[in-house]
């Protein structure tokens, strides 16, 4: 019994040791069994060359031979199991290796294919007849850099599949502008500026930064029309922001005078001979043509020698202006009005921070600020208390003409800024991934928790405040116009500009981006979009249906070239500064010849 017990134990131990699931300690000793001999235990090593089988008699030897044959047979069976196991492992390893090689081949092929596509894109861009990019030194990083940035997005893993890659690439691509070019240079037969002047114009540029910018451009044009000398404009310090910044704080005033020396005489101050003259104050009629200034204002200037325009905004019509004057307006806006060095440098620094790892970014003009909501009467998704606060503000501002406004009707007509939530839905529906880097071109959003939806869906949202230290922002404290200038620079150089309300900042930036090779600008169809949002919220359409309709709705609203739209009344026309074509952007001869 002792002998059988030992054999049994050895068999069990042998089975456990050779089991791939056995986690105990393993030895390299051969199998053995024990038997008693003269009250001594003798250990016999089966299959061990060091332990020859001891002589035994008759039945004992026979029994031992039978047992030895049994163990040997068992060992053969165990060895066969080992071979099967090793064969199985080999097959698994081979299949795994094959899969890795196949994956590597697919990835290499995909990247190679992408590189070829990007190279073709780069070649096509580099072969284009690029427009003049000298204005202000705002050099847009196009051509090979754009292609390299797209490739970097692919290889960095931002695009998860071929379909995602196609959608992502399409999102960041610019409209086709190859048949259009800038055309604002002085003509060859341009007459030299006459030193004689009909008088001096003093200007108070009213409104916020971009409203003042438009007004300054118009006043330079008016000075040209009347052959007058323009004194460096003064800026509005009584607007909502109460910014005390002067012209020299915001703009490079020496560059301004130097750039316009062949067009208009601009002086820093009135000459001593005219300093004692009492200026004649006049408010020019809005949306006027050149004839108004020649026939009605010029005689007054000649009589009084010094005239003071109390307002400068919208004092010149969008259309029906001589071509030379339209081009001059653009030379002022895109070449002469360069921001001061501190603003330029800080803006470029923020651009560098937004382009972390050479990634693209979207500039979002989210005009969901208290003053704009009060002015427009829009309070969708705000509380009753917040709505009342906006109404009170509207009544307190005397020059705001509209007081009682139906915010619901205005929203459905497309007259309200998109809410942060609506903006998030728009971005998602257009296919922007959640990791999109967004620069916020706006002040603080109004309403408790109003930014939650947007920040939850797009966590990489930045602003001049979040990208800067307190020390960097100290020089611009209480200077909102200077901060707006910094935002202007970052928005102008963004890969995509999206605005949620057609205010002066939106007009200024989109017009400048059109002039600079039609950089991609998304102009939301607010009236139809908010109706789709309401249907989505009411469960009348699915997300996929909503997404499809939004894409179709904005297919032709990405900043591609088109002729400025005229209106029945000047106020209803598209702004010249939002779309300077025709006037400052012309079709190339190749396109004109093809169309004829």
TrEMBL record:
GO cellular component assignments: chloroplast; Golgi apparatus; membrane
Gene this protein is translated from: Vigan.02G300600
Segments passing through the bilayer: 83-107
Membrane topology: Single-pass type II membrane protein
Sorted UniProt keywords: Carbohydrate metabolism, Fucose metabolism, Glycoprotein, Glycosyltransferase, Membrane, Signal-anchor, Transferase, Transmembrane, Transmembrane helix
Pathway where it operates: Glycan metabolism
GO terms of molecular function: glycosyltransferase activity
Compartment annotation: Membrane
Pfam families for the chain: O-FucT
Record PANTHER family: O-FUCOSYLTRANSFERASE 35, OS02G0726500 PROTEIN-RELATED
Name of the protein: O-fucosyltransferase family protein
């Amino acid at each position: 019994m002792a002998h059988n017990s030992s054999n049994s134990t050895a068999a069990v131990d042998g089975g456990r040791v050779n089991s791939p699931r056995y986690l105990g300690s393993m030895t390299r000793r051969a199998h053995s069994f024990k038997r008693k001999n003269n009250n001594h235990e003798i250990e016999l090593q089966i299959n061990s060359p060091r332990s020859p089988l001891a002589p035994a008699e008759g039945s004992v030897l026979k029994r031992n031979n039978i047992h030895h044959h049994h163990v040997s047979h068992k060992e053969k069976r165990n060895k066969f199991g080992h071979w099967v196991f090793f064969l199985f492992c080999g097959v698994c390893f081979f299949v795994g290796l094959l899969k890795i090689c196949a994956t590597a081949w697919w990835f290499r092929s995909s990247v190679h294919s992408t590189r070829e596509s990007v190279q073709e894109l780069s070649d096509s861009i580099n072969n284009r007849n690029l427009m003049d990019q000298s204005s202000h030194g705002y050099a847009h990083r196009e051509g090979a850099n754009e292609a390299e940035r797209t490739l970097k997005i692919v290889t960095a893993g931002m695009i998860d599949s071929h379909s995602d890659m196609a959608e992502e690439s399409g999102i960041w691509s610019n409209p086709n502008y190859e048949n259009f070019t800038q055309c604002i240079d002085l003509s060859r037969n341009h007459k030299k500026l006459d030193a004689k002047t009909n008088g001096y114009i003093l200007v108070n540029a009213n409104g916020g930064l971009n409203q003042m910018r438009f007004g300054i451009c118009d006043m330079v044009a008016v000075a040209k029309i009347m052959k007058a000398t323009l004194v460096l404009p003064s800026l509005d310090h009584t607007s909502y922001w109460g910014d005390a910044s002067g012209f020299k704080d915001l703009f490079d005033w020496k560059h301004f005078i130097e750039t316009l020396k062949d067009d208009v005489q601009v002086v820093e101050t009135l000459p001593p001979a005219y300093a004692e003259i009492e200026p004649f104050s006049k408010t020019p009629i809005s949306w006027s043509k050149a004839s108004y200034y020649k026939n009605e204002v010029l005689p007054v200037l000649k009589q009084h020698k010094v005239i003071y325009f109390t307002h400068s905004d919208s004092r010149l019509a969008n259309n029906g202006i001589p071509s030379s004057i339209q081009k001059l307006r653009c030379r002022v806006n895109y070449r002469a009005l360069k921001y001061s060095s501190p603003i330029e440098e800080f803006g470029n620094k923020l651009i560098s921070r937004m382009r972390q790892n050479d990634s693209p970014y979207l500039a979002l003009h989210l005009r969901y600020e208290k003053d704009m909501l009060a002015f427009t009467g829009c309070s969708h998704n705000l509380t009753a208390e917040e709505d009342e606060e906006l109404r009170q503000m509207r009544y307190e501002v005397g020059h705001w003409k509209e007081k009682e406004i139906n915010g619901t009707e205005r929203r459905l007509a497309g007259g309200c800024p998109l809410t942060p939530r609506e903006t998030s839905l728009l971005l998602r529906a257009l296919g922007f991934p959640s990791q999109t880097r967004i620069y916020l071109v706006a002040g603080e959003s109004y309403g408790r928790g109003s930014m939650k939806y947007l920040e939850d869906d797009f966590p990489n949202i930045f602003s001049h405040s979040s990208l800067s230290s307190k020390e960097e922002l100290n020089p611009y404290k209480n200077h909102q116009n200077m901060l707006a200038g910094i935002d202007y620079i970052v928005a102008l150089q963004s890969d995509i500009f999206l605005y949620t309300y057609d205010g002066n900042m939106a007009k200024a930036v989109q017009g400048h981006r059109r002039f600079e090779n039609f950089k991609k600008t998304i102009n939301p169809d607010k009236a139809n979009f908010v109706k789709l949002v309401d249907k989505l919220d009411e469960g009348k359409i699915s997300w996929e249906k909503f997404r499809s309709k939004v894409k179709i709705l904005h297919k032709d609203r990405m900043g591609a070239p088109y002729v400025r739209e005229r209106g029945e009344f000047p106020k209803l026309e598209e702004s010249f500064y939002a779309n300077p074509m025709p006037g400052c952007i012309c079709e190339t001869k190749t396109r004109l010849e093809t169309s004829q």
